[in-house]
């Protein structure tokens, strides 16, 4: 998620599911994620998977978002690994939305328009790029960097988040009126703190790299001020997710994951060992598994 404008951006997540990212027809009940002993429950996700026999041609898909969707730190230290993106990646282990959809449409072209370090203010520009690419399917996993900042005070306001997200959605629905749009919820960054606070390696990485200090500062502190701060950051992410779900639901061509990524209890094994923040390859696969059941019929 946050790439301190010198490379750095997680999975707080899920993912998820951003990531967030960012996908085969997974069973509507449950699926086991390779590399993890956990089982992904999809019971609460609207199940409308793409039919392998669909006659609709997507042509091209585009993924919008931040470093989660870029696969940052999923294959090496401080590098984007777009091949391992949950949305448009080509890595077979991740089994992205792109690979799952390509099974039915071999000529499908994928564009990863996400950028490490991006915030929601960057989303309208990414949407314009997707329009120029003529995408028939667009995925969005955005917002972790708007909450994961250097301090609580520097988080994006809910009003500013909604304004930028609405602008991006308007750009997509106007420029690509027949395209299907999928919006993932932002991973729960408080869950990130919960699974990593007792790991000395995670705490060291968070401090040394200055990661998500709005949530991860003083990770072992039980002082009321720190407890309250974490709750407020958690609430801001929940509010961002509510905005995206509401705006998405206003559009007939948009589907939201129903909070599946935000609510998923990911573990330390789903995080990159480079920074204990971004999704690992296993985390990217998890995002793909959790989000794909909500993909709109194309």
UniProtKB/TrEMBL annotation:
Q: Which residues form the signal peptide?
A: 1-30
| The protein's name | Lipoprotein
Q: What Pfam family is a match for this entry?
A: Lipase_GDSL_2
Q: Which UniProt keywords apply?
A: Lipoprotein, Signal
InterPro entries membership:
PLB1, SGNH_hydro, SGNH_hydro_sf
The transmembrane segments are none
- What organism is recorded for this protein? Planobispora siamensis
* Domain SGNH hydrolase-type esterase, residue spans: 64-286
A GO term for molecular function: phospholipase activity
Which SUPFAM superfamilies did the record assign? SGNH hydrolase (SSF52266)
């Amino acid at each position: 998620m946050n790439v301190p404008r010198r490379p750095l951006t997680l999975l707080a997540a899920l993912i998820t599911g951003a990531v967030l990212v960012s996908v085969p027809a997974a069973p509507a009940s449950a699926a086991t994620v390779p590399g993890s002993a956990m089982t992904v429950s999809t019971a609460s996700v609207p199940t409308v998977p793409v039919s392998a026999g669909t006659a609709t041609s997507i042509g091209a898909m585009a993924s919008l978002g931040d470093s989660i969707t870029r696969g940052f730190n999923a294959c090496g230290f401080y590098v984007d690994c777009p091949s391992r993106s949950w949305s448009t990646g080509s890595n077979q282990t991740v089994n992205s939305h792109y690979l799952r959809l390509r099974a039915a449409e071999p000529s499908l072209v994928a564009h990863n328009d996400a950028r490490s370090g991006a915030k929601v203010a960057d989303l309208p520009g990414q949407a314009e790029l997707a329009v120029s690419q003529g995408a028939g399917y667009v995925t969005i996993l955005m917002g972790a960097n708007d909450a994961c900042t250097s301090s609580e005070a520097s988080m994006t306001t809910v009003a500013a988040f909604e304004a930028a997200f609405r602008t991006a959605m308007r750009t997509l629905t106007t420029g690509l009126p027949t395209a299907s749009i999928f919006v993932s919820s932002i991973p729960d960054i408080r869950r990130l703190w919960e699974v990593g606070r007792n790991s000395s390696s995670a705490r060291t990485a968070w401090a040394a790299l200055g990661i998500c200090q709005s949530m991860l500062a003083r990770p072992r502190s039980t002082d009321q001020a720190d407890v309250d701060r974490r709750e407020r950051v958690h609430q801001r992410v929940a509010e961002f997710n509510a905005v995206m779900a509401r705006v998405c639901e206003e559009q007939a061509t948009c589907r939201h994951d129903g909070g599946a990524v935000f609510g998923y209890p990911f573990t330390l094994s789903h995080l990159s060992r480079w920074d204990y923040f971004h999704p690992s390859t296993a985390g990217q696969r998890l995002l793909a598994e959790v989000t794909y059941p909500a993909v709109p019929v194309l």
